[in-house]
Amino acid sequence: xxxxxxxxxFLACYISKIMRTEIVHPGAEKLRYEIRQIVAIGKxxxxxxxxxxxxNIGDPVAKGEQVPSWIKEIVQETAAENSSFxxxxxxxxxxxxxxxxxxxxxxxxxxxxxxxxxxxxxxxDGINKLYSNLHQNARVIGPNPAYPTHSSAEAAHADxxxxxxxxxxxxxxxxxxxxxxxxxxxxxxxxAIIIINPDNPTGFVYPQQTxxxxxxxxxxxxxxxxxxxxxxxxxxxxxGMKKLASVIDGVPGIAMRGISKEFPxxxxxxGWMEFYNRDKDERFDAYARxxxxxxxxxxxxxxLPQAVLPKVMKDDRYYPYLAERVKAYDEKSKHAVETxxxxxxxxxNPARGAFYMTLVFRNGALKNTQxxxxxxEAEAVIAPFLEHASLDQRFAYYLLAAKGICVVPxxxxxxxxxxxxxxxxxxxxxTKFTALVGTLRDAVQEYLRS
Length: 450
Known about the structure:
Largest sheet: 8 strands, mixed
Number of helices: 16
Low-confidence stretches: 1-12
CATH architecture of the largest domain: 3-Layer(aba) Sandwich
Order of helices and strands: HHHEHHEHEHEEHEHEEEHHHEEHHEEHEH
Number of domains: 2
Strand content: 5-15%
Shape: globular
CATH class of the largest domain: Alpha Beta
């Protein structure tokens, strides 16, 4: 009867001594993705019989958006071609890279060639290559709130906390450029500035003038600029969205794009980098080559979505389809602002692109004594997590347990010094979305007054 526990104790002892040297990367503990980690708690709440609304993840397909039948037909026809089962060139299919370069050059700004484009198995793969190929002492400064795939990968690379500049919710999430320049000046190891445009989690779109100022900071201090533009074709009408290529001028830069959110086809894992001004700096050129060489070790990226990309984007139905989706996100964003801005203890700005919004609690609004009414079973699920939770994380756990809504806390999910949470604009049913926002409003008010 006692053999199994004794066996486990012996095994634990044996495992603790078998490795003669340290094998874990020193930055491994910096890798955290709260967006998905909160799902484990949500599954426990779901097991109690609560219907959970998963507002934590930006998957349009999972939320019920329908991929147009004509896109599916193009995928099916392309999959029937024997060549779609083979390797692509390491950098990506020649025809696809030529199409992207042609379209980019039509937009104006810097002109590129197909050789400036490198494909990855989704931007997650690209982000990994971006940081793993940086010199061990080189740092990348990014926005606060941050997107966790970037911030945690950068922190793990450096084995140090991610360095950030502030996005200001009091100014519609405009970046604090004085804060950015001060930190660049103080930290000589900063080699690059990253922006997410349109931004995740805030939905902010960088005005062209702001982009130009960031490029000027990079020029003055000898940095390169990274622009994650995965949502660039989901910027709202009159948002003023401009890509990095329009302002980069002679400064080295990297733009990152993909089809996961646009088509939408997140399961395709298809993203790419565009390198700008490699010829202007030999260090930047060597860095770009190191990324390309590391990709060569994997042979290539997935062929089918690359082959599909130009066929879909060239179709006359594509951009009208995107315009419909964008209009719907814009309308839902405005409704959410109208509903939630009536709470005096919060700040909420309309999204100008992508399908996320962030609610910020004003300083002092949250306390560690606040709660929502829970069943004993639900309380037992979240109780172990409350002791060490940040204030907005605590609210997110109560919201999940009491109302069945799974959101991502701003502090732990997006490396932010502000308290709040991100939710999505993806619910396609307007009645359900209105109800969701109403429930959020009521839950926030109840929690703050408890």
